[in-house]
Design a protein that fits this description.
Blueprint lengths: L12 E8 L2 E14 L3 E9 L4 E7 L7 E3 L7 E6 L7
Parallel strand pairs: 1-6
Antiparallel strand pairs: 1-2, 2-3, 3-4, 5-6
Length: about 90
């Protein structure tokens, strides 16, 4: 596991390993480091898949997950997310 500040992921490619009900899916996108007045420091990962285009937003202050080297994902970094760590707004 890397303890990488979100700012260092700005403009990098990020693979998101999403787990939901025992199923796993790899999504790939590009990260942008941002500051929001309400949410603080964020990492916005823009996903462009054939079925949908959307953003995954990680809040740096609340983040306690794993950021690893992208390795075999074909991206610079890899993030693991389980459904219990995903919320809508």
């Amino acid at each position: 596991m890397l303890s990488t500040p979100f700012a260092s992921l700005d403009r990098c490619t990020v693979a998101i390993e999403l787990s939901l009900n025992g199923l796993s899916r790899m999504l790939r996108g590009r990260a942008a480091y941002e500051c929001d007045l309400q949410l603080g420091k964020l990492l916005r990962i823009s996903i462009h898949e054939a079925i949908a285009t959307f953003d995954v937003i990680l809040q740096e202050e609340a983040w306690d997950g794993e950021i690893a080297s992208g390795g075999s994902s074909g991206c610079d970094y890899r993030v693991k997310l389980a459904i219990n760590s995903v919320c809508g707004r």
